């Protein structure tokens, strides 16, 4: 009952309330991004894979140089960095594409605030599995073939802004463990679990635990 009906109500109300609460923060962030580097305020990132495999545009504050994602995948100068990116479960500990302001907003997950718009649009939930890149899912399932059944389960629900793995290590968790936690969340989703994760999230944001 909660998963089918009430979760969407909580998502909508929660997103509206959080947008109001975070108004001063995202106003300052927008100004900081504009003065820090050339380019748009929102990141131009590839589509993510949502519920039932449907692709959607995720909104994030830009924390990297313009065209960073395309650059990583196609620029010969970043060939070794891209190899490291794929080996490291699509995370980089040291990324030269990140701007000075970007480093700060990524550490405290401030770049994720615009995803509240995705929640209002019904593409995401406040709490759920990670929203993976299509090529990330494809390549990581080749690397960890035992995760294929878990990926199918994870894609049966909407991805979330925060989730079980985000409050349990975030970027320090490799794909196989991350997708297992996401699948565990899908199996156990409830109002109590969502509230527990939501209450843990601010501390993770403030501490920057596991952030890259």
From TrEMBL:
Pfam families for this protein: Bac_transf
Domain of life where this protein originates: Bacteria
Coiled coil: none
Family to which the UniProt record says this protein belongs: Belongs to the bacterial sugar transferase family.
InterPro entries: Bact_transf
Protein name: Bacterial sugar transferase domain-containing protein
Regions that span the bilayer: 12-35
GO molecular function: phosphotransferase activity, for other substituted phosphate groups
Limits of the Bacterial sugar transferase domain: 7-206
Keywords: Membrane, Transmembrane, Transmembrane helix
PANTHER family to which the protein is assigned, alphabetical: COLANIC BIOSYNTHESIS UDP-GLUCOSE LIPID CARRIER TRANSFERASE, SLL5057 PROTEIN
Keyword Membrane among record annotations: yes
């Amino acid at each position: 009952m909660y998963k089918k009906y009430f979760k969407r109500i909580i998502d909508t109300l929660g997103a509206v309330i959080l947008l109001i609460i975070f108004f001063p923060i995202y106003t300052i962030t927008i100004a900081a991004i504009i003065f820090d580097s050339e380019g748009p305020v929102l990141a131009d990132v590839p589509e993510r894979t949502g519920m039932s495999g449907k692709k959607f545009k995720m909104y994030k504050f830009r924390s990297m140089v313009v065209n960073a994602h395309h650059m990583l995948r196609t620029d010969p100068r970043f060939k070794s960095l891209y190899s490291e990116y794929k080996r490291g479960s699509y995370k980089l500990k040291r990324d030269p594409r990140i701007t000075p302001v970007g480093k700060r907003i990524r550490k405290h997950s401030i770049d994720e605030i615009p995803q509240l718009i995705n929640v209002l649009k019904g593409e995401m939930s406040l709490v759920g599995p990670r929203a993976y890149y299509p090529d990330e899912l494809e390549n990581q399932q080749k690397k960890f073939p035992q995760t294929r059944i878990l990926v199918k389960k994870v894609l049966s629900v909407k991805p979330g802004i925060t989730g079980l793995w985000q409050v349990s290590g975030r970027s320090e968790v490799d794909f196989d463990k991350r997708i297992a936690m996401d699948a565990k969340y899908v199996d156990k989703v409830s109002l109590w679990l969502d509230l527990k994760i939501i209450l843990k999230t601010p501390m993770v944001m403030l501490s920057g635990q596991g952030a890259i």
